[in-house]
Amino acid sequence: MFILNGECAYSMPLKDELNGYLRLPRTFFGIPRPETGDPDVGVIGVPYDMTSSYMPGPRFAPDVIRQATDSERVHSYSLSLARKDIVDIPLTKRITLEDVGDLEITLRLPEAAVVDISEACSKLAMRESNLLFLGGDHFITYPILKGLKRGRPGRYGLVHLDSHADLHSDMGGYELSHSTGVRRMVDEGILLTDDIAAYDLRSAIPSHREEMTGSKAPISSKKEFHKRVKEIGKQVDFLYLTVDIDVLAPQIAPGVSHPESGGLSMVDLVELLISSFDTGKIRYADVVELNPMVDPTGITSIAARDIVKEILTGFANHK
Q1: Which helix (H) or strand (E) holds 196?
Q2: DSSP labels, 118-151
């Protein structure tokens, strides 16, 4: 035992004895923490799935995603998908990152989870770091944005990449659900529907697609999406990006709680992410609905890993 800043601290003789033999702590592609000040990106796990209406399990996703990103070498370079110009500098040299940890909300009732998640996010929004949230089911986007807007006021836009619109008023009589998040945000004035750029929505009901996009048909034109996200980027202060992994085709990402036939390829998704970051307005993002419980192969966690890497690349490109 020794004294540090007037407080008692303890040495770790057994751990020190094995220095160099022990596995290093998990890091996102080996991206380092900053030596001083706020990190370029903070990563926060939100392990919550109490509102899943089909298959629970996304609460286990943050740790699974961390495990999938636990490699520097090849995986610390940006994805080459959908890119003409390849950056040959690894993310380890381009940004700093802090894994903040997981919020303690796993068994909270939804009403309590809204308070806890939004309070935590209002505190983080006061810092200068970009933030990446790892869900969790899609319910979490609502309290996250609620808190961010309180901590850093402004006009927020939403990039919503999902097979569903999440515009239901309730799910089985419950207003707080993975399928009601956008409805809550619009009804509470957190977002305007004019400030939402959505893509796919292949399993949304026609009236929800029309409310969100002006058309009852599923979105299939990336050109129209690129145009819309560019327009929204000009009229808002901040863009929030949410990626529901069920936007991907099931053969690419089978491990989701609410799978739907059809869906995007990873190249399609990367093109949408690149276009979204080209606005220069994305400050916050989340990746949701990975369900490790229904994917023993782990292939969906690889897709999540690459989505995370593309988001980190977007933050690095617009640092």
Answers
A1: strand 196-200
A2: HHHHHHHHTSSSEEEEEESSGGGHHHHHHHHHHH
Domain 28-317: assigned CATH number: 3.40.800.10
Q: Which residues contact 52 (CB under 8 A, 6 or more apart)?
A: 58, 137, 178, 257, 258
What is the three-class DSSP state of 307?
Answer: helix
Residue 100 dihedral angles phi and psi, to the nearest 5°: -70, -30
Give residue limits of the domains in the chain: 28-317
3-state secondary structure 225-274: HHHHHHHHHHHCCEEEEEEEHHHECCCCCCCECCCCCCCECHHHHHHHHH
pTM over 0.85: yes
- Listed in sequence order, the DSSP H helices in 135-221 are 141-151, 181-187, 206-213
Residues 6+ apart with CB under 8 A from 237: 154, 155, 156, 281
Q: What is the separation, in whole angstroms, between the first and last Cα of the chain?
A: 42
Q: In this structure, what token pair is assigned to residue 128?
A: 């200068």
For 236, half-sphere exposure in the C-beta direction (CA atoms, 13 angstrom radius) is 29
* CA–CA dist 160, 242 (Å, integer): 5
- Could you tell me the two tokens for 39? 């990190």
Highest mean predicted confidence (pLDDT) among 198-207, 217-226, 237-246: 237-246
Name the CA radius of gyration of the chain, rounded: 20
Flag whether pLDDT at 7 surpasses 70: no
CA atoms of 37 and 217, how far apart (whole Å) = 47
- Whose CA is closest to 210, among 162, 157, 165? 165
* 244-299 pLDDT, tens digit each: 999 999 999 999 999 999 999 999 999 999 999 999 999 999 999 999 999 989 99
CB atoms under 10 Å from CB of 214, counted, come to 10
Preceding omega of 136 cis (within 30 degrees of 0): yes
Q: What is the pLDDT of residues 160-183, one digit of tens each?
A: 999 999 999 998 888 999 999 999
